[in-house]
């Protein structure tokens, strides 16, 4: 059972389900949410029984409607600077989590909500989902990675248009643009996301970490370095017990049994 106030955390078999739980504020992301998510993500990453995670929003309307404007309205520039505001999302949620996780976007994913979804390894979207970076309407700009991750996901033209106009993109457009892996009927989103997570959880866990690491490297480095990184990780995996089991199981026409090493 979850002991958090702003999120719900439950384990279903090998899958951790985390739900942003401030539905009255459309799951807006404040400092308490970040602190709790940071703890939940760290606990997931450290728990050997857990092999995939799904993050979604409570209520029918929103994944997260952005950073909490009511928290930010009170702050002055020096506070944002001295607290290095927003830096925790990158360090705790993105860098701190080596194991796979999926964002199941069930409604509005705006500003920091869109940025949080883009921190996931991939996004599954309800057909009611809406994505946007409307910070310009508040006199600011994305602060949790939107200008970088949205641009890498959908290209300069669409990212620039989204940021400059603040308009929302529906799920169909998001899939066409490559922002989301798949669109699912709204009522089936969580079931589909959990099933997808269970599929990932059934794979050799060390190979899952390495697959995630090498795909992410594509965003950080040159092609030549990325290819070398991929080969090294492939070679490391060939030394694992799960490689011996996986290839033996294929030859013997049976399912593999994974040790995670
Ligand atoms: N922060 C704080 N509270 C928020 C919020 C946010 N980002 N988004 C919605 N809420 C609150 C509303 O204030 C409202 O609370 P009250 O009932 O107490 O008034 C409640 O959630 C419901 O919202 P609405 O009545 O506005 O619902 P709606 O259906 O009419 O509109 C919406 C939905 C279009 C998403 C609208 O709420 C909206 O535009 N929200 C703000 C979106 C936004 O600008 N996000 C970017 C934030 S800045 C940011 O994220 C910076 C960054 O890069 C990290």
TrEMBL record:
Top-level taxon in the UniProt lineage: Bacteria
Keywords for this entry? Lyase
Has UniProt tagged this entry with the keyword Magnesium? Answer: no
Record carries keyword Aminoacyl-tRNA synthetase: no
- What PROSITE patterns does the annotation carry? ENOYL_COA_HYDRATASE
Which family is this sequence assigned to? Answer: Belongs to the enoyl-CoA hydratase/isomerase family.
The protein's name is: Enoyl-CoA hydratase
Lineage of the organism = Bacteria, Pseudomonadati, Pseudomonadota, Alphaproteobacteria, Sphingomonadales
């Amino acid at each position: 059972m979850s002991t958090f106030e702003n999120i719900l955390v439950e384990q279903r078999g090998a899958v951790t389900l985390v739900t942003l739980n401030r539905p009255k504020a459309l799951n807006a992301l404040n400092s308490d949410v970040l602190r709790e998510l940071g703890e939940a993500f760290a606990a997931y990453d450290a728990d050997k029984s857990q092999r995939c995670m799904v993050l979604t929003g409570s209520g029918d309307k929103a994944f997260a409607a952005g950073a909490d404007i009511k928290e930010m309205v009170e702050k002055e520039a020096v506070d944002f600077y001295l607290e290095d505001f927003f830096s925790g999302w990158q360090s705790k949620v993105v860098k701190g989590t080596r194991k796979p996780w999926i964002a199941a976007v069930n409604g509005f994913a705006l500003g920091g909500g869109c940025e949080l979804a883009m921190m996931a390894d991939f996004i599954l979207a309800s057909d009611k989902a809406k994505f946007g970076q409307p910070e310009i309407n508040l006199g600011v700009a994305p602060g949790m990675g939107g200008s970088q991750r949205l641009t890498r996901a959908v290209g300069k033209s669409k990212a620039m248009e989204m940021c400059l106009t603040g308009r929302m993109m529906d799920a169909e457009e998001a899939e066409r643009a490559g922002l989301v892996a798949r669109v699912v009927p709204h009522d089936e989103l969580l079931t589909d996301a959990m099933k997808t997570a269970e599929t990932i959880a059934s794979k050799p866990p060390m190979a899952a970490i390495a697959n995630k690491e090498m795909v992410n490297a594509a965003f950080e480095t040159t092609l030549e370095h990325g290819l070398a990184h991929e080969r090294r990780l492939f070679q490391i995996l060939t030394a694992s017990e799960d490689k011996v089991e996986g290839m033996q199981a294929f030859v013997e026409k049976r399912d593999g049994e994974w040790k995670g090493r």
